[in-house]
């Protein structure tokens, strides 16, 4: 059952991305173009989702466990460190260059254009680079 | 439907989806985290991640087939930019442990300070990058 949930959540999440306009990189660039011809509509995507989750997460996390799983899997790290800042900065720059973040990259695979696959390929390569680097530099 | 209504509707749908994953499976919906973890060789543990990503691709395909008007845009950037952006997004989201979904949509509602800092940081650099591209 939990695998069916995984599929459905991915499916519905993707539909939400498409309807909201997040999959359109030109619209995302317009949203980030605060000092130019700003298109503020996308603030309601994260805003809407965050407000909804603010209430629902509060209720859900009061439960002792999820419905199909033994426990909740939540990020444990609490430290704001250099890695978080450098990583988020690089991600922001990458996001600003094309207007594509990871979710919309997958939702856009149906366009089947070579640029979608180029983006995804190099995104995965970047992730692997971090993985290999961390493997060789264990603290 | 105006752009604002569409954004709010899409955001609400994303809220329902991410809340469902937490309620049923106890997982946070962070796309970059799911992709990053799926790259390690542990098939049984990663099965839900593969299936999630198949769902993500299928949702896009569903919309493309039944509502093709949502896909009436083009990727106007060069291959050079595509490559640099892909690398930066890949490296950045793994170093920073999350992207728009993990830190933004799921981290902020958990009142995570890390996610708040991450979200403000990538928003700032996203805005800065578009600004610099604009004046160039």
How would you characterize the overall build of this protein?
The complex is a heterodimer of chains A (139) and B (136). By secondary structure, chain A is an all-alpha fold. Chain A has one domain. Chain A is 65% helix and 0% strand. Chain A has helices at 2-20, 25-32, 43-60, 82-98, 102-107, 114-136. Chain A is globular. The mean pLDDT of chain A is 96. By secondary structure, chain B is mostly helical. Helix content of chain B is 76%, strand content 0%. In chain B, helix 2 (31-38) packs across helix 3 (43-66) and helix 5 (100-107) crosses helix 6. The longest helix of chain B is centred in the middle third of the chain and has 24 residues, at 43-66.
Reported for the largest beta sheet of chain B, the result is: none
- Which descriptor suits the 3D outline of chain A? globular
Radius of gyration over C-alpha positions of chain A, nearest whole angstrom: 18 Å
The ordered string of helix (H) and strand (E) elements of chain B is HHHHHH
Helical content of chain B stands at over 70%
For the terminal residues of chain B, how far apart are their CA atoms? 35 Å
Structural class by sheet pairing and helices of chain B: mainly alpha
Question: How many strand units of chain A?
Answer: 0
Distance N to C terminus of chain A: 38 Å
Helix content of chain A: 55-70%
The total count of strands of chain B amounts to 0
Envelope shape of chain B: globular
* Most extensive chain interface and residues per partner: A-B, 112 and 107 residues
